[in-house]
Design brief:
The chain has 11 helices and 11 strands. It is of the alpha/beta class. The chain has a domain at about 5-90 and about 250-265: Nucleotidyltransferase, domain 5 (2-Layer Sandwich). The relative contact order is 0.18.
Length: about 270
């Protein structure tokens, strides 16, 4: 290995977001660009994590990646990793990732993932306030997937349903199916019911973000790929809704940013 190759290897950094549904990785490629990788959380835990002398290790070769010089992790599974790898809060990870993607210093950040929702108010380039909703599954990616499965609609089709939404009063993931059954028995088209579910998620999100005085909303997380929720949220709130590229990787990107900063500080 020549000196140039050694220098490149020392600069390899990686951000890991261990979510409840998926593990997302953002890493430095050998050419200096950024790579992304996503896999099921259970698969990652079962097939790519191991222990060596009591220490948790990642099978980087099996992932097709070189061992990073710096790694920072966040997410639902960070408690498992924190004794073995540097971790940061999900708030910081999503803030860093969204700020780097948008270049904005003043915005409201909405992160809707697999099992919870977070809202951050960013002003003057830092987090002024935040709130989370982790007590109810309604409005999360898992909830939307379950509703799409219940209606026998492909998730891609479900995520485009916004026209003529029926009123969905139950926002509880447990009782929501009963309400959907009632609409089906009355002959309501499944697409209208899907639009109603998407509208109810947009309504819940608006209730969280409207407390902050800012016209720009940055929407990230897996639910940000739901075109209907994005559109309905914009119509309901009147805000400019920005969805960065690959919104489900924003937390991992923030971890990559943190890892790069720590590497440069050495």
């Amino acid at each position: 290995m020549n000196r140039k190759q050694k220098t490149e290897n020392r600069k390899l950094t990686l951000g890991l977001d261990f979510g409840s549904r998926f593990v997302k990785l953002v890493y430095t490629r050998p050419d200096g660009g950024l790579g992304r990788h996503e896999l099921d959380s259970l698969t990652f835990y079962r097939d790519y994590l191991g222990r060596n002398g009591g220490r948790l290790t990642v099978d980087w070769a099996r992932l097709g990646l070189a061992p990073p010089e710096r790694l920072v992790a966040t997410g639902y599974g960070k408690e498992l990793l924190k004794e073995h790898f540097p971790t940061i809060t999900e708030i910081r990870a999503h803030f860093l990732g969204a700020k780097s993607q948008t270049g904005l210093d003043h915005f409201v950040l909405l992160e809707m993932g697999g099992q919870d929702t977070k809202v951050l108010y960013v002003k003057e380039g830092r987090v002024f306030d935040f709130l989370t909703n982790d007590r109810c599954a309604a409005g999360t990616g898992r909830y939307l997937e379950n509703m799409a499965r219940f209606l026998h609609l492909p998730l891609t089709q479900f995520a485009r349903a916004w026209e003529e939404p029926v009123e969905i009063s139950h926002t509880c993931a447990i009782f929501g199916e009963s309400e959907l059954i009632g609409h089906l028995l009355r002959g309501v088209a499944p697409k209208r019911i899907a639009a109603g579910v998407n509208a109810s998620v947009a309504r819940r999100a608006h209730l969280m973000v409207r407390r902050y005085p800012c016209p720009t909303l940055v929407f990230v997380g897996g639910v940000a790929r739901n075109q209907a929720v994005v559109r309905l949220l914009g119509e309901r709130s009147g805000l400019q809704v920005l969805v960065p590229p690959h919104p489900q990787f924003i937390g991992a990107l923030g971890c990559w940013q943190e890892a790069r900063q720590r590497l440069e500080a050495v």
